[in-house]
Amino acid sequence: MGKIVLYHGSNEKIEKPLFGKGKIYNDYGQGFYCTEHIELAKEWSCNEGVDGFANKYELDTTGLKILNLSGEEFTILHWLALLAENRRFRISTPVMRRGIQWLKENFLVDVSEYDVIVGYRADDSYFSFARAFLNNEISLSQLNYAMRLGKLGEQYVLKTKKAFDQMEFISAELADNTIYYARRKMRDDEARSAFFEEMEKEDLNGIYMRDLIREEMTSDDVRLR
Predict the structure, then answer these.
(1) How high is the pLDDT of residue 121?
(2) Distance (Å, rounded) from C-alpha 189 to C-alpha 187?
């Protein structure tokens, strides 16, 4: 992979990301979260009434062990299991509680040996899509459809000191909140609208959370591909 350019959206310039900092309840746990797309970084950097910065870096991937959850050996359920492991879910039904347990037992990837993780980003709307699947409200195919809404792409998460040491700060570009906060909100609103439209459809032949549990589907089940 060599050297790649990544961006991190923040309310400040970050010339030296610090290993061991950051929220532990993020999608993939504690780490430094980046994107390949500067426009997305600008959206993520802005809050209402507050400008942000798209910090630009160059990451030398030489010698780094990278987990790419978009690889053929993984399904969206591997991503969801990691999300269930790291994010705080409000468990509202017994099937949701059992579903989270089932995912962790059968789809949770051990990320401890990886320097960088590449995978979906669960912003507010995506997190609600994940909850809907865990709560047996949508099918697996509907969840896959929902994760393409909003076009958020993938995020890169630096997890180890080795990865931090191999990233170099390049520059920081100001993001105007009057532009980018509005764009982020519009992207989220459009994704939610399309999702609710999809939820109105009946997926009679789809795989739901109850089916995973009842039929004891595991990661090598051809029905999940």
Answers:
(1) 78
(2) 6
Q: Residue 7's closest CA among 49, 48, 44, 46?
A: 44
pLDDT the model gives residue 24 = 82
pTM for this prediction: 0.89
- Residues 146/111, Cβ–Cβ less than 8 Å: no
In total, the chain counts a number of residues equal to: 225
Query: Which is it for the CA torsion 99, 102, 104, 109, positive or negative?
Result: negative
β-strands 52-60, 3-10: how paired? antiparallel
pLDDT, position 150: 58
Per the CB < 8 A criterion, the answer to whether 51 and 42 are in contact is: no
**Cβ atoms of 158 and 121 closer than 8 Å:** no
Residue 114 near residue 85, CB atoms below 8 Å: no
Domain borders along the chain are 3-224
What confidence score (pLDDT) does residue 15 get? 96
Q: Dihedral angle at the C-alpha atoms of 11, 16, 18, 23, nearest 10 degrees?
A: 20
Residue 201 near residue 133, CB atoms below 8 Å: no
Q: Is 20 helix (H, G, I), strand (E, B) or coil?
A: coil
- Average pLDDT by consecutive 10-residue portion of the chain (225 residues)? 93 94 85 94 92 97 95 90 88 89 94 94 76 91 79 85 97 95 87 80 87 90 82
Strands 32-35 and 52-60: unpaired
